[in-house]
Amino acid sequence: MAGIYHIKSISELHRMLGCSPPRHPSISLVKFLDMKLNEKDIDFKGATVDFYVISMKNSSGQIKYGKGYYDFEEGTMLFAAPNQIMYPSHLSSEVLDSEGWSLFVHPDLLYGTDLGKKMGEYSFFSYDTDEALHLSEIEKIKILSCVNNIVEEYNQNIDAHSKHLIVSNLELLLNYCRRFYDRQFLTRGKQNKSVVVRIERLLIDYFNSEKPLNLGLPTVKYCAEEIGLSPNYLSDLLKKETGKNTKEHIDYYLLERGKNLLLSSDQNISQVAYDLGFEDPKSFSKLFKKKVGVTPNDFRSSVN
How many structural domains comprise the chain? Predict the structure, then answer.
């Protein structure tokens, strides 16, 4: 079996899926029922694509996407940014034979548009599979309305207004998805509060241990892996619950530990910085001044 296969264009993907050529070179909707993918003919482990993928699954089934297998529920949406690994060889027959669709959007379509500049704001393109978006019936109708408008527009003859209208409907689609994710954070309040408690305990234990000396400063990625979430999802969840993202939580507990060391020991500023995990004491002093309002030395002197 070959390694990871790289798909550069939407046309190439259509050929691989056994679909007719796309009506538009930079955006296309493919229904799962239209795929003629023969699993026996696939000789690669997975594939990366040069475009965005937005998928909805409307009935039960299983797909390998990202880190593992995921059981779809009715009205489940998944998102992938360019160069994320997809696993077509693990699409089950249940998925291939069920209702659902994938919208493929090449970055070429977004060049020179306001949406192109804002794509990084849609952090759900980097969420893990088990952080998928689950829609109500009313929410599904909103999403399908946007998708149908996009398809209707690119199926017409291209004119001077086509790109603007397609991109506008795509942005509306993404904005609805962001709204529905915000709703999902709110409706999972109990689970989210548990994550907040876990991240706080994780950081308190980290800075009270020898880990800063041995491992350096904790990163957003480290915290996310310890909690079992993707970095973007964890930051978005914490922001919704506490008003601070993961990096801000790290900085808070880092500085609380730093204040404690400054007041409870005679260590110089450099040694305090090293004990906290900094490689450069100047970085500690800069962060301390930015967040606390005074330098570490001034803080120590003012309290003493």
Answer: 2
Tell me the two tokens of residue 75. 């009205």
> Could you tell me the residue range of the domain that residue 265 belongs to?
190-303
Cα(245)–Cα(231) distance, rounded to whole angstroms? Answer: 10
Q: Are residues 177 and 200 in the same domain?
A: no
CB atoms within 10 A of CB 138: 7
Strand partners, 28: 104
Whether residue 178 is found in the same domain as residue 205: no
Read off the pTM: 0.80
Residue with tokens 């929410």: 139
Tell me which amino acid residue 155 is. Answer: N
Asked if pLDDT for residue 292 goes beyond 70, the answer is yes
Q: Tokens in use for 34?
A: 């239209």
The alpha helices in the chain, defined as continuous H runs, are 10-17, 93-96, 114-118, 137-155, 162-187, 189-207, 211-215, 220-227, 231-242, 246-264, 269-276, 281-292, 296-303
Indicate the DSSP class of residue 83: T
Q: Which amino acid is at 190?
A: K
* Residue 156 shares a structural domain with residue 293: no
Show which of 187, 216, 231 is a domain's final residue: 187
pLDDT at 304 over 70: no
Amino acid at 66: G
**pLDDT, mean over the chain:** 86
